[in-house]
Every structure is written in structure tokens, then in C-alpha cells.
Design goal:
Number of helices: 14
Strand order of the largest sheet: 2-8-7-6-5-3-4
Order of helices and strands: HEHHEHEHEHEHEEEHHHHHEEHEEEH
CATH topology of the largest domain: Aspartate Aminotransferase, domain 2
CATH class of the largest domain: Alpha Beta
Largest sheet: 7 strands, mixed
Structural class: alpha/beta
Shape: globular
CATH architecture of the largest domain: 3-Layer(aba) Sandwich
Radius of gyration: 22 Å
Amino acid sequence: MKPRQSLRASDGLANVRYEIRGKLARRAQSLERLGYDIVSLNIGNPFAFGFRTPETMRLAMIENLRSSEGYVHQKGIFPAREAVVMQQQERGVRGVTAEEVFIGNGVSELIDLSLRALLNPGDEVLVPSPDYPLWSAAVNLNGGRAVHYACRAERDFVPDPEEMEALLTARTRALVIVNPNNPTGAVYPRETLAAIASLAERHRLVVFADEIYDHILYDGAQFVPMATLVQGTLCCTMSGLSKVYRACGYRVGWAVFSGDTESAAEYLGGLELLSSLRLCSNVPGQWAVQTALGGYQSIRELTRPGGRLHESRRAIIEGVARSRYLRLRRPMGALYAFLEVRDDVLEDFDDQAFALELLEHKHVLVAPGVSFNVPYRNCFRITNLPEPDILATVFARIEELLDARAAAAS
């Protein structure tokens, strides 16, 4: 009998990270099992903070449960796909039919399938830094190479199209835009998006527009759909029910292809093949799509002044303003704030060590900035989903810990 050997993970996981649900999150669960109350700010999960999916969506699912017991078309049920088409048409996107819409088990699955259908070993994809780490992970998992373009705080985390173009090589196949942005909350201006669309068209790059937070906007910020600007190359718009409609557990997302779909027939055929291999995505949740997109948009009540998300965001902004140590570029969209620890006040700050100490001693779980593929170590992300009073308590705990660190360093 051969000696027992450790069972190693695949080498393909070497460059794959998802620290948002990594060691810190596992330690938080251990502390909860010991009886500690942990304020978990690492994930944008509305249900965990008392938000509910609109009742009309729940009823749509219940009424169609009998029709949800079998497999459906690999691209999704027609009413859901047609609802996405109608939304795109209302936004000014032309030439899209239900045939160009794929329903998936959340945007996460569609990111993986879309990149798997596109990439050959060594192909490159431009991904923002900071990024939503699934994009970098999915590129690497599918044999590609994630090339990060900087979204700098001094530019309000808006990318520079010229810097992006300078990163292109003969192996670049696609670029990723996350707008409104996770983790920074930046909402990109039309001029920037138009310049990015232009460079994608010049170089025949596929544009992946992750727009899952499209209706979550604050203080008059204007969201510009990327598909309205991209004509001369393929554009893939991704969105879903998870965030705007507070339905993360339904696992319903969609990818809709526009622009130069004619030249992409083989690629789209490959994506349909992959969709067929997983048979179909979750059926009950698909029945909520038409009701969600065509019904009353309750998210607006939450994001306007006085609304729950707006006031929680205000609590974050005020908490930073009171701090000796923190700095923040005001988030204009999404569900997050990307906080910076001032290096002129606290030198040699390490975001992972801080996050662990904050969890162990103050029972607050945050996501270190390094989780989002940035080269610096003085940032961390929190969500604005908790009530304002909870966030005020969080900032008091953060300040206590940073005071102790400053005192120890002096």
C-alpha cells in the first residue's frame, strides 16, 4: 500500500483569492459560536440587516411554483428574458432580443461562464483595481491573466482611459467596468465611459459591464448604461436581483449582449453550450424578474434623503469626518465605502492585521483593502447596510482601536 499523502488543491487555484469570505469570515463564525455578537460589514447581504425582497416578487414566485418544477430553456424563461430586453430598450439600447439574454445563478455564475467561453490560455483581461475580486479570480481560473488598471482615490476612483489603453497588448481580449463600483462606490461620468467604449471599439475588445448596482445612487448621481455607448464591438451588460431588489438568495442574474453581436456568433454559441451543460439556472427566482423590472422601484425610497441606505451612508460619512485617522472619497452609488487610513497619522499600517485585531477585540468584521487587488495596505471596505446607530457604534470602536495603535507607536 502506498504511503498516505496530502491531497493537494489544483494548481489552477494558485492565483485565486476571495478574502471577503476567507480566513477573517471563518474566524468571525468561530467567535459567534462562542457567543460573541459580531457586526459583519464584510458582505453586502441586505437580508442580514433586515431588508426584504418586495412582496410582489415573492408572490410572483409563489404563483408560478407549479411551473418551476422542471428544467427550462438553458438561457432562461422567456418572460424573464423579455423583461430584460424591455429594460434595455427603455435605456436606449437597440437591437437586443431575448436571444441575446442569458439568465444565470446570479451574476457570479455568468461572470465565470462568459469568461470561460472567451478565453484561451494566456489571454488578458483588463480588470479595475480595486476590483470586485470575483472578476480577477474568474479570469485566472479560466486560463487568462488579470491585468489591473488603477482607479485612484485622487481621481475619486474613476479610471483613466489613457492609462487603460497603455496596458493593452496583443493578448488583451476584454475589459471589465464595474459601475456603480464595488468596493469604492464611484459612479463613472459619461465622458469617461465614452472614452473607454471608444478604446474598446478601436481594439475590438469585449466590454463586460458589471452594473448590478445600477439603481443604487445617491445625491443626484447619474448612472450611464455602458451598452448605450458601445456599438462597434461586443458589450455584455450584467445585472440581477441581488442588490437593487434585495434578493441575494434567489440567485438570479442576467447577461445581455449588445453592440456587434453579429461578429460574436461563435462566442455566443459557446456560451450557450456552457449554459446547456448546467441545464438551466434556478427556475423559481426567474419568475420574479418581470415583476421586479416592470414594477414599482422601491429602491428609490431607500436611497433618497431620509431613506435607510441614504442615512446609513450619511452615518459613514459623518463617522469619517469625526475621525483623526480616516479619509473617504464619498461613495455616490452601491452599498459600500472604501475607507483609507491616513499614512501621515498612522505609518506602516497593515490592513489585514488591523482587520484581525478589530474582529478579535472589537467584534467588527471588515474586508481589508488587499482583498480587492490593490498594491497598498491602508484601506478597508465596509457596507452601509446596517442602521445608522450601529454604524456610529462601529466607528467608535474603530477609533478606539486606532487610538490604541497610535499610542503604542508614539
